[in-house]
Amino acid sequence: MNRLAIVTGYLGGIRDRFMVYREAAGLEVKLERAGRVEGADGVELLYPADFEDLEQLHDLLRRNDLKVSSINFRSRRSGRWMRGSFSSASAAERREVGGELKHALTLASELGCGLVTTCPLTEGSDAPFELDYRQAYEDAAEVFRAACTAVPGVRLAIEYKLNEPRSRCLFGNAGETLSFCLQVGSPNLGVTLDTGHALLAGERPAQSAALLAGAGKLFHVHLNDNDGRGDWDLLPGSFHFWDFLEFFYTLRRLGYEDSWYAYDINPKEADPVKHFTAVMQATRSLEALSERIDPAVMDELQVRRENGATLTYLLSLL
Question: pTM here?
Answer without folding.
Answer: 0.97
